[in-house]
Structure formats: C-alpha cells, structure tokens
Design goal:
eight-stranded mixed β-sheet, binds L-MYO-inositol-1-phosphate, five-stranded mixed β-sheet, 38% helix, D-Maltodextrin-Binding Protein, domain 2
C-alpha cells in the first residue's frame, strides 16, 4: 500500500474529478470530426471547463497557493512559496483531432522547485504521480526508468514544430543526429505524457524546445523520482524558464544531451 501525502492526494483527486467531464467532451469531439463547423470552439470550452474544475478543487484544499495556468494565466497566492502549474489538456491538438493521447498535468512548485507532479491520461485511466523523495508511480505500480544503456537500442520522443512555430531547421538537425545514433524517434504530441513515459521506461528519453512551463511541470518530478535526469539544453535546471527539456534514463541522459549539444555549437541552425 502506497503512503501518499495529503497534497498529492488532493492533486490526484482534482485530476480525476476534472477528467470526468473531459472524457465526455472527448466523446463529443470524436463525433465532431465530420462536422463542417469542426470541434475547435468545443475544445476551447473543454479546456476552460477542465481548468476551472482543477482550480476550484486545488484552491479549496490549499487556498493560499498561487497558480500558473495555460488558460487562466498567473494568480498570486498569499503563500509566495507555493504555486500550482496546470495544463488542463496537454495534447490539445490530439484532443481536437479525436486522437486518444492527452493528459491533465498538475505540478506543484515550492520556492522554484517542482516537488510533486500528477499526469493523468484519462482514456486509459493511467495516473502517473510522484513527489520529491517518495518515488514515482503509475496507479499503484512503482516506476523505474528503462535500463537500456546503448543509444542504438534506445528510442527517443520529441516535439516537431509546425507552421507558425519557430525552430524548424534546428529540429531537422536534432532529428538527423538522433536518427543516426538511435533505434528511432517518436512524436506523440504531449510533453507531459512524454515525460511520464520516460519515467515508466516506455522509451529511453525525450527532448523538446519551444514548450511552456505547464507542459512539463507535472512530468519533471516523475522522471527524477523514477531514477532519470531532466535538464535544459545547457545541462541546468531552468527548463520551465527556457521552455526546453532533455530527459532520459540515468545511462543515456549524457549521450543524448551531448548529441544535442553537438548540433547546437557555433550558433546552431536558426530558421
Ligand atoms: C503541446 C505539448 C507538446 C508539443 C505541442 C504542444 P499543448 O502542448 O505538450 O509536447 O509538441 O506542440 O505544445 O498545447 O497541447 O498544451
């Protein structure tokens, strides 16, 4: 039986409560794919409804904590040390297209450090959760990162920029380097679940730039508590501020990090 803190239980309960409506909305979106109007407005309202429930539940339990939310922005709390960092639907484009790969992500930040995280994937009822010093779990199962030690046996996930999002040439250089040295690259469309899958050992690592703090705040502590490493592209801990992440198991973080560094020297590949 896992012993969880009251705060982690609050986070998990809030995610489950918000997911009930989200799953219902996802069923609607699947139907809307064929409608001329399309589901865009519907997804926006699903985003807002989910975030509202999360905020209500977390504020009820910890009224002094602040917020940083994808839709609602920043809310200062009377407790300046603690802040919830929330993405109500990470994998929004998947959700919009009826692709069943998205998650609710909640990170708890204390004095600038993420100390607890919940990433809940409601379609398959996968509750990834962790708090600093207490391990990482998928539902009741303890997580450990992959034991693979060779790059040529490893697969890595990433995000791919698209129209209107910068970094196309740098991504192509990154992908070329990782393709040439690994067993493959995956692009699933949710940073929170990419980090959760690294923690679960489903792939060996994940890198991405141009992302938001709320995309990764819930997943960072999952990887660390499962025995992996998470840094920014300079090998530091400023992932949230820089909007970039390099996460991998303990054996392959350095090789992946070094590979990405090698295609960033001399200024990298600006668009
Ligand atoms: C998404 C990230 C994903 C990235 C997408 C998008 P959203 O967040 O989780 O890793 O590749 O472009 O930013 O917008 O679904 O919350």
């Amino acid at each position: 039986m896992i012993t969880r803190s009251a705060t982690l239980n609050v986070m998990m309960s809030a995610a489950r409560k918000a997911a009930r409506g989200l799953i219902r909305d996802f069923g609607e979106v699947e139907q809307l794919q064929v409608s001329l109007k399309g589901p865009s407005d519907f997804v926006s309202s699903a985003d807002l409804k989910t975030e509202k429930i999360l905020r209500q539940e977390l504020q009820k339990a910890r009224p002094a904590f602040g917020f940083l939310m994808e839709e609602g922005g920043r809310i200062e709390g009377s407790d300046a040390s603690h802040r919830w960092i929330i993405d109500p639907i990470d994998g929004t484009t998947n959700f919009l297209h009826g692709i069943p790969h998205f998650a609710i992500s909640i990170g708890l930040e204390r004095d600038g450090e993420i100390i607890a995280g919940v990433v809940y994937e409601p379609v398959h009822d996968e509750m990834f959760h962790a708090e600093k010093g207490a391990g990482a779990y998928l539902n009741e199962h303890r997580l450990r990162v992959s034991a693979r030690r060779r790059m040529d046996e490893a697969i890595f996930a990433t995000g791919i920029p698209y129209k209107g999002r910068p970094g196309h040439r740098q991504f192509l250089a990154d992908a070329e380097a990782v393709m040439a040295n690994s067993a493959g690259i995956r692009r699933f469309g949710s940073a929170a679940l990419d980090l959760a899958y690294v923690a679960a050992g489903r792939y060996e690592g994940y890198w991405e730039s141009g992302i938001k703090a709320w995309d990764i705040a819930g997943g960072i502590v999952l990887v660390r508590e499962a025995g992996g490493y998470v840094t920014d592209f300079d090998g530091q801990g400023d992932m949230l501020q820089k909007g970039e992440v390099v996460a991998a198991n303990d054996q392959l973080h350095r090789p992946l990090f070094s590979l990405l560094q090698s295609v960033r020297k001399d200024g990298g590949h600006p668009d």
